[in-house]
Design goal:
The structure holds two protein chains of two kinds. By secondary structure, chain A is α/β, with parallel strands linked by helices. Chain A has helices spanning 8-11, 96-101, 106-126, 128-131, 171-182, 206-214, 228-231, and strands spanning 41-44, 49-56, 76-84, 86-95, 152-154, 157-161, 164-167, 198-202, 236-240, 254-257, 264-276, 285-297, 304-311. Classes of the chains: A alpha/beta, B mainly beta.
Chain lengths: 315, 154
């Protein structure tokens, strides 16, 4: 809310200029947003909550003798999980006096600022999925373990999956992330062979990650071996400041994803705006409002591996 | 989670596996879930318990959840044929060696409601589950009910 009483200099035109911070459009190279399906599958939902379970097939086939019955498999669906959509919203109330008298586009910029902060809220909340990927109280998969964990249980196998690395992102650990995806087991214990497609890093690691991926020769090493990441893998690099320490995460976090990851953004209501004219109010004020309603969920760890960068060195 | 702990790998006889209806005493509430091993207790069926072996009359693996309530007798369908080769998980995968083939072993049940049931591959005391084959890589055990013990408590 902005009133003449709170901003007397504006309405009396005492000032010659009001300084606005220009809002930064999202044009950074490799900028990761919550709309990017490489890191968030976009799922439109039509209920207040999304309920999901995990499917597990019946594992490797059995060898069969000539007249032996064909072995029966048992597929399973289980580990149900519910994601309830959450609304984020904001409104501004502008008295008609203030609207009429202020001379510095304050109303326009108030609404602009509100919209920009809505966008930043969406990023902050959405990327909590990645910031909390190593936390037992944060982003959990349907086996009630963190998204990146040393021992994910499998629905139809006694084996476990480890998609949690600790080494800082360097020439060797980057390949460990690729191999972790390739050697990841499906829910029935079959080697999935996921292909590494997208590398997601905090903003402060973007430069180093670019050099790792795109250098002609192996980056930050003492030899002149070819750089397999630029010559053999076409890994797509994304960055976000919403993963780093400034947002409550860590600048050392890095995630490798395949196309078949299960990090989802469930959209119940896209950003909606409304306004109410002063003639419809009891106190002769305009109302501007905006809201969106969505939730993020990771039912399965499949196709996702991450390192929290707590060990090792970058070079 | 114990649903689906055991399933039929091979019914041996022609056609697919079929189930048979049995009764479950009132008192619990859907105490048996599909895939769990059950034994006979009087005229009714009861969920297999930890260490139970041929001191029980084993009937087979449940094909459905049981329908009993606290006050009413229910029913459950069971893969009843003792010829069926069943597949489940070993309690300790590292114990799966050639020596366990054709031994009669017992059942392990994890704690908690409908705790996970596994084949205790190295406990032959009063064992009634006859191990036919295993795969230590994929971590499963194929077994049959020992027919004599299936019919009467040993």
């Amino acid at each position: 809310m902005a009133t003449s009483a709170l901003n007397p200099n504006v309405v009396k035109t005492k000032l010659d200029k009001v300084v606005y911070n220009e809002f930064a459009p999202e044009k950074k190279p490799g900028y990761a947003s919550v709309e990017n399906s490489k890191i968030f599958n976009q799922v439109k939902i039509n209920k207040g909550a999304q309920q999901e379970e995990i499917f597990a097939s019946s594992g490797y086939w059995d060898q069969r003798g000539e007249d032996q019955n064909v072995p029966l498999g048992q597929s399973k669906v289980g580990q149900g999980v519910t994601y309830t959509a959450v609304e984020f919203s904001r409104r501004e109330q502008i008295p008609k006096w203030f609207f009429d008298d202020e001379k510095f586009n304050m109303v326009t910029n108030m609404i602009r600022g509100m919209a920009y902060n809505g966008r930043r809220t969406q990023m902050l909340k959405g990327f909590a999925t990645w910031r909390n990927a190593f936390s037992s109280t944060g982003t959990l998969t349907s086996d009630s373990l963190s998204l990146c964990n040393n021992s994910h249980t499998l629905l139809n196998s006694n084996k476990t999956v480890d998609n949690y690395l600790t080494e800082k992102l360097n020439d060797g650990s980057l390949f460990d992330l690729i191999s972790t995806l390739a050697e990841m087991l499906t829910q029935d214990g079959v080697l999935a062979g996921y292909t590494a497609e997208t590398l997601l890093v905090a903003n402060r690691r973007f430069k180093g990650a670019c050099e790792l991926l795109d250098s002609e020769l192996s980056a930050e090493t003492a030899n002149n071996a070819i750089n397999v990441y630029s010559s053999k893998y076409g890994i797509f690099l994304l960055q976000s400041e919403m993963i780093g320490a400034a947002a409550g995460g860590s600048d050392h976090y890095a995630f490798m994803l395949s196309r078949y990851h299960e990090v989802n953004r469930y959209i119940r209501e896209a950003l909606t705006t409304w306004s109410k004219d002063w003639t419809q109010s009891d106190n002769r004020s305009f109302i501007y409002g905006a809201a969106y309603r969505e939730v993020y969920g990771t039912p399965d760890f499949a196709g996702t591996a991450g390192t929290d960068g707590t060990t090792g060195a970058y070079a | 989670m114990a649903r689906g702990d055991f399933w039929i790998k091979d019914p041996l006889v022609g056609g697919g596996p079929s189930s048979t209806k049995f009764t479950v005493a009132a008192g619990g509430a859907a105490s048996i879930v599909a895939g769990e091993m059950v034994y006979r207790s009087g005229t009714d069926l009861v969920l297999g318990a930890n260490g139970d072996a041929n001191t029980r009359v084993w009937v087979g693996a449940a094909a459905t959840d049981s329908t009993e309530t606290a006050s009413a007798r229910g029913e459950v369908y069971i893969y009843y044929n003792p010829l069926y080769i069943l597949r489940g998980r070993p309690s300790t995968n590292a114990n799966l060696a050639a020596s366990v083939r054709n031994t009669q072993v017992t059942l392990d049940v994890a704690s908690g409601t409908n705790g996970k049931q596994t084949i205790d591959e190295d406990d032959t005391t009063n064992g009634t589950f006859r191990i036919i084959d295993f795969d230590s890589t994929e971590q499963f055990v194929d077994f049959q009910l020992a027919i004599t013990d299936h019919l009467t408590a040993g």
